[in-house]
Amino acid sequence: MDFSLQQDTPEIGAFRQAVRGWLAENMKGSEHLRWSGNWSTRENDEEYRFRRALAGKLGQQRWLFPTYPVKYGGAGLTLDHQFVLETEIDRYGLSLGSVFYTLARLVAPALMKFGTEEQKMEFLPPMTRGELAVWQVLTEPQGGSDVANCQTKAIRDGDHYVVNGQKVLVGHHLPPDYLWTFVCTNPAGKRHENLGWLYIPANLPGITLQHMSLMMGIKNAVFFDNVRVPAKYLVGGENNGWKVANSYLELEHGGGGSVSEHPLFKRLIEHCQKSDFDGESLLEDQDIRDEIADMLIDLDVQRLMGLRNFWHRYVREPHAYGGPQFLYFQRMVRLRNSERVQKILGYDALVPDNSVHEVADFEYTVRSGPGWLHGGGTLDTDRLIIARRLGLGRPAQEAAPTTVGE
To answer: What pLDDT shows up at residue 279?
Structure first.
């Protein structure tokens, strides 16, 4: 990847100015809002309404999924246009993939790659317009990161699948429109060859959502009790779910990359400049400067890894182990930053500050260090995928899947 800084071409420069002007106009009214994290203890109704409305406006511009074909709700634009949109909205502290809580950024690529034409035409446009909240419904109580040990059964009955089972640690404090659900379609079948994915309307009879109050905020248990799901909602074919999962989970495991800059470093610098101990700025303390320098190095390396994976994904040349490497490193950086903030601020790091965006809040940083170690798998999951991609202990290397539909 070419990391050199280049000026925008005239076309991209004009597009950047158009996006910047559009955002300046459409972000009005949010000046007093402070964004909650994707896994949050403090999101409020006003913030959620603003973010849902903003997503809808971006969707009307066809900018939420700008490289997708026009017929599916995208704009048919290039990677350069995508990069402009990602970086410009990042200036406001938001991510294009999570303007509000939905996992459409993970589900839409799976539909693009594995869905039938009929499924794409029905499912994608409302998703790419920002009209739907979609949850990933994957983890089960007995399975954890062993997702192939799926016990939620979907048994074919005429033109429907009858779904029974339970999922845990999923979603958001507000209900979804659809549940992207991993199911066992053949309980007597061979492991990895008995699975499927259902795109389930969340309002079907027999679905129950139950909040789970956790350290990082609300997640949910989802219960399926004889839920009848039209067979047309099966994506990727019956008993072919593991193939879909390999591609889909590459995004959850870091393969999609990121272009965002983490706001924690700048806020910590500002705090230490304004705070003093024994009459001196905290920045005069050599130990604190060393901790901040280590944080800067970690966050810069993390961002370069994210940019690398972003590029590899969109040129359809996935880095062999770049996704899990990025996710593993990101988890460890969160953990180290949690410890650094506690060392520098002491007990003050444990006091929430609602005057800043949640991801820049020191208290959130302290919690998210250990809190995010298990999201999207565990550290062991990351290490296992890296080992397989390198061919360690196996006769051949496992190839990284592409995550962009043709």
So the answer is: 84
The answer to whether 325 touches 305, Cβ cutoff 8 Å, is yes
Q: Given this model, what pLDDT does residue 247 score?
A: 86
How do residues 309-327 score in pLDDT, each as one tens digit? 999 988 888 899 999 999 9
CATH classification (class only), 10-100 = mainly alpha
List, as own/partner pairs, every contact residues 301-304 make where C-beta atoms lie below 8 angstroms and the sequence separation is at least 24, other chains included: 301/329, 302/262, 302/326, 302/329, 302/330, 302/333, 303/258, 303/260, 303/261, 303/262, 304/3
Average pLDDT over residues 176-204: 96
DSSP type of residue 400: P
Give domain 134-239's CATH number out of 3.30.565.10, 2.40.110.10, 3.30.9.10, 3.50.50.60: 2.40.110.10
Rounded to two decimals, what is the model's pTM?
0.92
CATH number of 256-390: 1.20.140.10
The pLDDT assigned to 143 comes to 82
The residue assigned the tokens 């001196």 is 280
Q: According to the model, what pLDDT value does residue 406 have? A: 47
10-100 shares its CATH topology with 134-239:
no
Q: Using CA atoms in the order 210, 215, 217, 223, what is the torsion angle rounded to 10 degrees?
A: -20
Structure token digits, residue 277: 């101990």
Dihedral Cα 83, 39, 132, 51, nearest 10 deg: -70
